[in-house]
């Protein structure tokens, strides 16, 4: 009952409203507010009222403008970067090692025989531009060449450039002659531009990949054709063709503890073949570093086997290495460095830890779950990285546009790698995607940086190793340990010594923090309001109260207006005086008192008319008439 009583009172209060008019409410606010200015508008004379009204409106506008600036700055989500130094025992980084040559030439020679012969013919043609003297007695299998040839673009006449096949017409394919686009015309690589011709749609649509140097052109052409060949070889066969850890890693020492190739995890990286990771942390706990300094780091001796390099595929000799965090995939092609053969390379490491704020301050992700790109490297059970996202994005577009995936990147389930036999247009499609700026921008916009990242800054120094005085005995010992041979089986041009260590245990933490937080925003809003208007939070509450009252009065008046409008519409129009009772019952008059000959027609012949009844009284006195009319009638009767 009490609840119902209070509800009824509240409803009555809502219907009643504040009890003020607009003017009374405004005057009450100006008299009672704690904000400076409105009081003077009411209390002063007309001239000062106008002045104070103008000043109040001006300063209120300034306050609103300043508030807008501060709110826009706060919603910009700006960050400030803090750099701090720490000191502690740290986990040793994961170290990935690869050979510059992905395969041993002795094991892949049978796959590259036709390609190598074409490459030798191309080099002979570049060195000797006369097609009559170069490769006169060589028979080539031009199946690969006709699919993606190298050409010379003769632009000595800019208005009529001529495209010349680099091999010319002096080669035969299965005993038949291969025609040249411009018979009898020669052009050297120095006079013309070397380009790769990539065609699709049965040769109806072609594009030219131009190069400034013949060396770059033949290298890229050979890599593209080798990719086509290796894409058709099973992965386990490719692993067997690469360099094994037992042959590549000759010596290993971590601090004072000996190690061997068994302490490395093998992965297949298509660009560099077999790679080996030390301290990856997948199956075992990460190894800590006991102390900073070269004596407590990782010492390695590698044999890259340079004498068995693929001659046209690997033009760089050395070991490729990368330092990275545990449980992350090593993108050694993009982030790695080379170690030179015949030298000892010392790498001092400093650690930088990056901590980003995340949304909405920084477009980063914690684990990649909010990135709209399928991570193709998830099979390795590694953490998210932006390189994995970019490569996965490119492979996704490659599959969508070319119907096949590139050999260098992982494949989604159910897809195939590109090759000339099954996908003859893939090279042209791949070049379009590789040159597409829009694709790169799309992938960059879709991928995000990791919110927490660790970077290893390296200081690299090199010295000749082994020295001339110690070269003989060191090579003898290494040969005996690996091959059990009294003869030297390793060479100075094939061995690399690495020394990786922490320079110091100091690490830097680069951490983002919000440049403008809610405390900053409220203090600036209050400062501006107090400076220009002399107000506080209570003044804002007063202003909010009067706004609510204004709305309240407006709603009540609007409801009252709608109610009165509905009543006027429901009221029927009445232009004449209301009828008397006699007029209302006139339609029910008995026909017996109003004989009508015509009424007999409705009855059968000989049947008597109905018996008349008592007529209704004619109460004219019930007619509603104005008072003055009744008085005038009475006076007339008296006269």
UniProtKB/TrEMBL annotation:
GO terms for molecular function: ligand-gated sodium channel activity; WW domain binding. Residues 596-639 are annotated as: Disordered. Coiled coil: none annotated. The keyword Kinase does not apply. Residues 630-639 have a biased composition (Acidic residues). The keyword Cell membrane applies. This is Epithelial sodium channel subunit beta.
């Amino acid at each position: 009952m009490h609840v119902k009583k209070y509800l009824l009172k509240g409803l009555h209060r809502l219907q009643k409203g504040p009890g003020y008019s607009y003017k009374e409410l405004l005057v009450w606010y100006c008299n009672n507010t704690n904000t400076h200015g409105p009081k003077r508008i009411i209390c002063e004379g007309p001239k000062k009222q106008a002045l104070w009204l103008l000043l109040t409106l001006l300063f209120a506008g300034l306050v609103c403008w300043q508030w807008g600036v501060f709110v826009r700055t706060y919603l910009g989500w700006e960050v400030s970067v803090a750099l701090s130094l720490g000191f502690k025992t740290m986990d040793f980084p994961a170290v990935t090692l690869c050979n510059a040559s992905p395969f041993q030439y002795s094991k892949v020679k049978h796959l590259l025989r036709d390609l190598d012969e074409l490459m030798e013919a191309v080099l002979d043609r570049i060195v000797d531009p006369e097609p009559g003297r170069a490769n006169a007695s060589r028979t080539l299998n031009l199946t690969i060449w006709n699919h993606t040839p190298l050409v010379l673009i003769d632009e000595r006449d800019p208005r009529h450039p001529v495209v010349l096949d680099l091999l010319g017409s002096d080669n035969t394919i299965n005993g038949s002659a291969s025609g040249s686009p411009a018979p009898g015309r020669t052009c050297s690589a120095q006079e013309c531009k070397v380009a790769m011709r990539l065609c699709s749609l049965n040769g109806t649509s072609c594009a030219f990949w131009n190069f400034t140097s013949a060396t770059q052109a033949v290298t890229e052409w050979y890599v593209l054709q080798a990719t086509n060949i290796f894409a058709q070889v099973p992965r386990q066969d490719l692993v067997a063709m690469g360099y094994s850890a037992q042959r590549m890693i000759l010596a290993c020492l971590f601090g004072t503890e000996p190690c061997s190739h068994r302490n490395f995890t093998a992965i297949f990286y298509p660009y560099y073949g077999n790679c080996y990771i030390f301290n990856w942390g997948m199956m075992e706990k990460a190894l800590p570093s006991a102390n900073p300094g070269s004596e407590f780091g990782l010492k390695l001796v590698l044999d890259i086997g340079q004498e068995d390099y693929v001659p046209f595929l690997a033009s760089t000799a050395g070991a490729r290495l990368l330092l990275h965090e545990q449980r992350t995939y090593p993108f050694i092609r993009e982030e790695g460095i080379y170690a030179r053969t015949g030298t000892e390379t010392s790498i001092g490491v400093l650690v930088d830890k990056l901590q980003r704020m995340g949304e909405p301050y920084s477009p980063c992700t914690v684990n990649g779950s909010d990135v709209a790109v399928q991570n193709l490297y998830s099979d390795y059970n590694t953490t998210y990285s932006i390189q994995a996202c970019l490569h996965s994005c490119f492979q996704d577009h490659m599959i969508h546009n070319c119907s096949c995936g590139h050999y260098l990147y992982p494949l989604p389930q159910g897809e195939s790698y590109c090759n000339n036999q099954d996908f003859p247009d893939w090279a042209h499609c791949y070049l379009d995607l590789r040159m597409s700026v829009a694709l790169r921008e799309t992938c960059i916009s879709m991928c995000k940086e990791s919110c927490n990242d660790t970077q290893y800054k390296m200081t690299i120094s090199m010295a000749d190793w082994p020295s001339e005085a110690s070269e003989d005995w060191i090579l003898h010992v290494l040969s005996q340990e690996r091959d059990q041979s009294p003869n030297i089986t390793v060479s100075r041009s094939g061995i690399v010594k690495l020394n990786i260590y922490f320079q110091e245990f100091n690490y830097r933490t680069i951490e983002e923090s919000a440049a403008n937080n809610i405390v900053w925003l409220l203090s600036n809003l209050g400062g501006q309001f107090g400076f220009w208007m002399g107000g506080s939070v209570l003044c804002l509450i007063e202003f909010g109260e009067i706004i609510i009252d204004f709305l309240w009065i407006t709603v009540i008046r609007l409801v009252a207006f709608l109610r009165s409008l509905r009543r006027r519409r429901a009221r029927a129009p009445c232009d004449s005086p209301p009828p008397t009772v006699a007029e209302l019952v006139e339609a029910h008059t008995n026909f017996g008192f109003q004989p009508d000959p015509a009424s007999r027609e409705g009855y059968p012949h000989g049947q008597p008319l109905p018996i008349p009844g008592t007529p209704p009284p004619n109460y004219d006195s019930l007619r509603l008439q104005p008072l003055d009319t009744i008085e005038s009638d009475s006076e007339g009767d008296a006269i």
